[in-house]
């Protein structure tokens, strides 16, 4: 693993297109800013790990008995809610303005 | 239509099966890329994401909008591109359900399986707004004894 020392305000450039900047150090917490093209996802590692664990717990055998879930109080045509992803997805394509 | 009726009526088991390709697998199951999405009217609103060519591995999934009416998944642009989604209508979401026993079940709202309806290509996407949602959103199950 490459280990570099950085001070607040300093950055690391990866692959010429991903900039990782140390924004602030507050005690044990390091605030990191990431400037990356929209096609590079960046998540906290814990999010990956918790979803992996959740998937492992959820694994079952086919045809296991399913519980009953009454849907009488729930919306009948939920498809319209999908429009919700349009706006955020478009918002994410907006390039992040690099700080000078 | 009364949804209650569709759950309690003994319908003929008109099971439908659609093949899905998850080129990146599910998180923690990266090596398994081919799945079958199985729906059976008697099991609605639950469906199955079953590993193809492996008769013992499956996940229970559900349309998240049925159980979380305010769900507003923010798909990262990288995933929208990967899946070739051009419009929101191109996407179908299913979220993985965990059956905990004791009549308790939860659904993961942070990492939906997003399917391109036209191509059958799918990916488990970590939402850009994942922190807004629960990994274990409780489903309002009906107590089996109160039937």
Describe it for me?
The complex is a heterodimer of chains A (100) and B (147). Chain A has 100 residues and is an alpha+beta fold. Chain A has a domain at 11-59. Chain A is built from two helices and three strands, in the order βββαα. Chain A has helices spanning 45-58, 86-93, and strands spanning 11-14, 18-26, 29-35. Chain A has a three-stranded antiparallel beta sheet with strand order 1-2-3, with no helix packed on it. Mean pLDDT of chain A is 77; it is low at 76-84 and 86-100. By secondary structure, chain B is mainly beta. Chain B is built from three helices and nine strands, in the order αββββααβββββ. In chain B, strands 1, 2, 3, 4, 5, 6, 7, 8 and 9 form a nine-stranded antiparallel beta sheet that branches. Chain B is globular. The chains are: A alpha+beta (100), B mainly beta (147).
Question: What order do the helices and strands come in, and which of them pair?
Answer:
The complex is a heterodimer of chains A (100) and B (147).
Chain A: E1 11-14, E2 18-26, E3 29-35, H1 45-58, H2 86-93
Antiparallel strand pairs in A: 1-2, 2-3
Chain B: H1 3-8, E1 16-21, E2 34-39, E3 46-51, E4 58-62, H2 64-67, H3 77-83, E5 91-101, E6 104-107, E7 113-116, E8 122-124, E9 137-138
Antiparallel strand pairs in B: 1-2, 2-3, 3-4, 4-5, 5-6, 5-7, 6-9, 7-8
């Amino acid at each position: 693993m490459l280990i570099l020392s950085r001070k607040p305000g300093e950055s690391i450039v990866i692959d010429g297109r991903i900039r990782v900047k140390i924004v602030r150090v507050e005690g044990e917490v390091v605030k990191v800013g990431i400037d990356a093209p929209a096609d590079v996802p960046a998540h906290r590692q814990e999010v990956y790990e918790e979803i992996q664990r959740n998937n492992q717990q959820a694994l079952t055998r086919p045809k296991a008995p399913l519980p009953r879930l009454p849907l009488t109080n729930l919306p009948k045509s939920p498809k319209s809610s999908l429009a919700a992803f349009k706006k955020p997805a478009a918002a994410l394509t907006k390039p992040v303005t690099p700080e000078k | 239509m009364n949804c209650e009726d569709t759950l309690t009526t003994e319908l003929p088991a008109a099971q439908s099966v659609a093949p899905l390709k998850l080129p990146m697998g599910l998180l923690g199951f990266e090596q398994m890329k081919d799945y079958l999405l199985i729906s059976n009217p008697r099991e609605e609103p639950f469906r199955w994401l079953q590993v193809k060519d492996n008769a013992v591995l499956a996940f229970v999934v559900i349309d998240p909008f049925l159980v979380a009416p305010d769900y507003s998944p923010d798909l990262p642009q990288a995933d929208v591109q990967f899946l070739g989604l051009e419009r929101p209508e191109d996407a179908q979401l299913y979220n993985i359900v965990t059956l905990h026993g004791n009549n308790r079940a939860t659904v993961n709202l942070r990492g939906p399986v997003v399917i391109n309806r036209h191509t059958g290509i799918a990916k488990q996407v970590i939402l850009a707004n994942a922190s807004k949602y629960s990994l274990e959103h409780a489903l309002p199950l009906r107590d089996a004894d109160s039937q």
